[in-house]
Amino acid sequence: MRKILIALMSAGAGVALTLALGVPAQAQEAAPTEVAGVTAELDGQVFDLSQGWGDAETCLEEPDGAPTDFRCYAGEDSHLETQSLDDCPSDHVCLWESAQFGGEMVGFTSSGNHDLGNIGWRDRASSFYNNRSTTVTFVDFRSGIIADRWIRYEAGNIVADLSSIPYPDGGSWDNKIDRVTLP
Ligand SMILES: [Ca+2]
């Protein structure tokens, strides 16, 4: 009898542990706080994009994540000197820190979730170009009981000023995006 009781208690503890572990895991999904290192290369120098962009003005995800996660270009690189819509290569979704495709730009090309906090880009995007043949989903992480907000765009969609896009809780989508999801 005593053995059975202990077994039951163990099982109960196992369930409780699973539940306890399940809650933080969900919370982390909703609002990740840990930042993962992201490698980038600029003029032959490899650095961690999560620690700052340095001289980089434009960073494009490497399709295979090799040799680094991103390849970056400084502002003085002639072909990218003027930030514009044309800087977004095909098969990429590009985000700019300013409206009208100005300031720093980041481009993503691989399927999956791209958490902008990993490259120091949470709450920064003000314009974008979906230069891919798929949809793109932008997510704004919320905490507590409020569900994350998201908005989806079709292939080829362009928004020159995210302050023109209404946000569900009022205001706009300007400086709100925390995650880019590509199918
Ligand atoms: Ca946000």
Please tag this protein with its features:
183 residues; alpha+beta; Gamma-B Crystallin, domain 1; eight-stranded mixed beta sheet; four-stranded antiparallel beta sheet; 1 helix; 16% helix; globular; disordered N terminus; binds calcium ion
SS-derived structural category: alpha+beta
The CATH level-2 architecture is identified as: Sandwich
Please report the distance between the alpha carbons of the first and last residues.
54 Å
Give the spatial strand order of the biggest sheet. 2-1-4-3-6-5-8-11
**Sheet having the most strands:** 8 strands, mixed
Summarize the structure.
The chain has 183 residues and is of the alpha+beta class.
SSE topology sketch:
Layout lengths: L1 H29 L8 E4 L2 E4 L7 E6 L8 E5 L17 E7 L3 E7 L3 E4 L11 E5 L4 E5 L8 E5 L4 E2 L19 E4 L1
Parallel strand pairs: 1-4, 3-6
Antiparallel strand pairs: 1-2, 3-4, 5-6, 5-8, 7-12, 8-11, 9-10, 9-12
This protein binds calcium ion.
Calcium ion binds next to loops.
